[in-house]
Amino acid sequence: MRIASIQLKVIEESKKKALKHVSRMVRKCRGADLILLPELWNIGFMSFDRYREEAETQNGPTLTLLRALAKELSCHLQTGSFVEKREDRLYNSSFLLNPEGEILGSYQKIHLFTYQSQEAQILTPGKSTVVISTEFGRFGLATCYDLRFPELFRKMLDQGAEFFLVSSAWPSPRLEHWLLFNRTRALENLSFLISSNCVGINRGTSFIGHSLAVGPMGQLIAEGNDEECIVWADLDRETVLKAREEFPALRDRMFKS
To answer: Which domains are present in the chain?
Structure first.
């Protein structure tokens, strides 16, 4: 499976410009089997004053565009996240699309960020982990701050996850944390982890990039820099199965969810 993680620059000026830009970047990934996008890329994570006015339903412009792009490129597309409106509540939602542009599943971010952030004051946390079966394997979805909570990833493992797809807007003061959590979540669950992080500045906060593809033994497969780019990697589910067969850590667990 060829994956392309788009390390997208935040465009603050307007959602319309952000959608045009993401269209160009996604089309550069032609030939990928799976494309990933970052967290809240269409308005910027720190744009808390825009969350309510820019919230969309599943029929809104962001998901409509991405569904069309997945179908055009005939690939799986992890949409990154956007503020989704469901009835009277707002969520930080991401979706996995198939090559026909159909929705395979969606995840509402469970751990909302409370440190120097208004996310938890505006949005409603999700309640359920999500693992989705595809022809390439089973994908568990997570978002940014979720990386700090190993129990979420262990629960997805117990639901059959072999790959973790993580959309993020991770800021620059905590680069070492970012690198550590990406590799640790992959290693402790003997799974692939692919992350897509933002770059650029949003409301005075700088985002670090360094999107990653990490193997099931914690090995670094690919890494972005601190500029807008596309991180490519070739991954095979058999690598996960072999690692789990050879190394007994998951079989030797004493505490299971």
So the answer is: 2-246 (3.60.110.10)
